[in-house]
Amino acid sequence: MALEAIGSVNTVLPGIRPLKVSDTGDNEVSFKDMLLDAINSVNQLQHESDAITEDFIAGRTDSIHDVMIAGTKASLALDFMIEIRNKIVEAYQEIMRMQV
């Protein structure tokens, strides 16, 4: 059951592709590409939320539900990316504290 919930993260950030490993062990998608795709996806959700909010304010749409859903999706995606950034910074700091 918990694995199903973890799999639903891809619906929040649709730009994230699962990492595929070929038979030779070479990664088809680099970490950099995955991170850039996720950042672009979050940016796209923010722009969509802004556009829907502007449409609502201008009176071009009357669906407050769509406005709230788009805003919540954008907010959750941004929070998720902030947590990923925090974990990357923590990992970097932990590596820098290692003694060789």
From TrEMBL:
This is Flagellar hook-basal body complex protein FliE. It is found in: Bacterial flagellum basal body. Pfam families: FliE (PF02049). It comes from Thermoclostridium caenicola. Belongs to the FliE family. GO terms for cellular component: bacterial-type flagellum basal body. Keywords: Bacterial flagellum, Cell projection, Cilium, Flagellum. GO terms for molecular function: cytoskeletal motor activity; structural molecule activity.
